[in-house]
Design goal:
Layout lengths: L1 E5 L3 H9 L5 E3 L2 H6 L4 H11 L4 E4 L5 H12 L5 E6 L2 H12 L4 E6 L2 H9 L4 E4 L1 H6 L4 H15 L4 E4 L5 H10 L3 E5 H6 L4 H20 L13
Parallel strand pairs: 1-2, 1-8, 3-4, 4-5, 5-6, 6-7, 7-8
Length: 228
Amino acid sequence: MRFFVDSGNLEEIRQAIDWGICDGVTTNPSLLAREEKDYRFSIREISRICPGPVSAAVLSFDEAPMYREGKDLARIADNIVIKVPMTIDGLKVCRRLTSENVRVDVTLCFSAAQALLAAKSGATFISPFVGRIDDVGTVGMDLIRDIVTIFDNYDFPTQILASSIRNPNHVIEAALSGADVATIPFRVLESLFHHPLTDAGIRKFSSDWESAAQKLPVKKVIRGEKAS
């Protein structure tokens, strides 16, 4: 399973890429608004930092302006993926853009029926929002499993991008469920490195080594001799 970092912060993205485990970036207008920078400038900078796919969301919801925005954003860099909403107009734009070899991520997916429509529209990625589904009292990962089954039944090339990831367990469940990608907030991505037993083990090894080093004999050097 590939990891994308879900962020609009350039320093977070640089760190995630530097760790060597991040394969792409997803972002959205809300994340980028927090950075208080020009929208297209931010997308351009992210695409320079990350060699993998970088999502860039359209800001319109009607077909004609959505299509124009998608074409404009796709010109920024070759690794841009255009993010469109799961609506009738969004899927019409998805079909138009993919027919022109522009990669598309259909976002705000909350049902298997929506995922099926996105796949039939030629989407490169479909983004089910598992955390938000959990928030309304159902199990988001059940949706991932349903989509995996449907896509496997018909060999759809659309990749399942598990989104709205809230914690490390979501990441593991997405991997177990067969998602192609998990897009992960920086704080959750960072937390995957840590486990209390790992931290305790490092402290124990360090303490044992320091104790052993203090007991090592120190060879006295006689004047005129070279230390060996």
